[in-house]
Amino acid sequence: MKPSPFSLHLPESLAEALDLLASSDNARVIAGGQSLMPMLNLRLAAPDDVIDLNGISELAGLREEGNDIVIGAMTRQRDIEFSPMVAERLPLLKEAILNVGHRQTRNRGTVGGSLCHLDPSAEQPAVAVAMDVRLSLRSVRGERTVSMRDFAVDLMTSCLEPDEVLAAVRFTPWPARAGHAFVEYGRRHGDFAIVSAAALVLLDAGGAVERCSLTLGGVASVPFRVEAAERVLQGSRPTEAVVREACSQAAKCEAISDPAYPAWYRQRLAQRLLERTVAKALERAAVQS
Fold this sequence. Notes:
14 strands, alpha+beta, 5-stranded antiparallel beta sheet, Enolase-like, domain 1, 25% strand, 4-stranded antiparallel beta sheet, Uridine Diphospho-n-acetylenolpyruvylglucosamine Reductase, domain 3, 289 residues, 35% helix, 12 helices, globular, Uridine Diphospho-n-acetylenolpyruvylglucosamine Reductase, domain 2
């Protein structure tokens, strides 16, 4: 199939793009196009106007602001993959990005595009939830900042208003001594993950868990923190028994079901993957502490 007819707009500034978006009753913004183009071809989306953000340089790039790292929404996944700053200060993001499709996918795909598309199996939304990122949303009405937890409303549905664009994403790195891990399971490398798990763990001087973040993707309609598991780990000495008890909470989480993978399968897989992910993060934390 081919897309339904639409008008293509090529703004050269964010202000121009926001004016176009505000003046259209049925517009879609295109970034890397890795998700929107198939939707257009299958006529799952039929906008009257498509606003291409690729010519807006102010929406791309990585920079440090104080202790934070700000990543422009149009930054390519390839730039994340090869950034020394990301590798050093956001290692969880670096590890997750290597699971995104293939090299050709990452050459075009963008950080903002993945976050706005909000596929429940996507790696970048899971990392964004794990790290409590803040998103800068822009419109002709001004700017607002929302947390990733508030941004992800439901299955492939964000809190973006029709006239808003995601401009940038702000990460606050964890201390360098924190352990991290990202593990996902799919039928083959590059396929959509059935379930993914992200873990960040910080140990105190005595080897107890000082802080942790445990996140699952692909299980529910949006990625989510497994707070019951975090409560078990927090303040404990992470023995194998404690880790098993914590990760068993994943099997109790509400899960989506489809003809290929029923809810019980996702729950069971989530528990196993979370155990593997936490163990890997703890091993790294112990080495770095």
